[in-house]
Amino acid sequence: MKSVLAIVFGLVLSASTLSQTSDGRALPADFRSDNCTLFPNGNYADCCVAHDKDYYFGGSLKERRASDKRLRECVRSKGKGWTRRLLADGMYIGVRLAGVSFLPTPFRWGFGNKWPRKSPAKTKIENAEKDTKP
User: Fold this and answer.
1) Domain span at 113
2) Can you say whether the dihedral through the CA atoms of 30, 46, 25, 37 is positive or negative?
3) What is the pLDDT of residues 51-67, one digit of tens each?
4) Do residues 47 and 71 touch, judged by C-beta distance below 8 A?
5) What's the whole-model pTM score?
6) Does residue 21 fall inside a structural domain?
7) Taking the C-alpha atoms of 74, 82, 93 and 41 in order, what is their torsion angle to the nearest 10 degrees?
């Protein structure tokens, strides 16, 4: 019985570890979160830390929107009433407005990347179109 429990426990631990690194991205050892930037910390600070991890790496605009929505829903789930909904919605509006990637703020989308980010390389089609224009 003990060996079965040990195996199950080991599988649960390894599954949670694998799911955190399944996208191939690992946070640096010196990564630090300030919890809820520009908002008071409450029982929802873990929501803000998860959001900071998303923001560290950045990604597409769709991924940013999804991360911001997860933050709002997580904060809402930590309490009840209109004040918690107001706080969650205020945080959502704040990160949507202030978390843009094109400003050199320490809390921008993709703050783990150098700023300014270089433009993505042009495709062969874009280069060919450029060469054919008069």
Assistant:
1) 31-132
2) negative
3) 999 999 999 999 999 99
4) yes
5) 0.68
6) no
7) -60
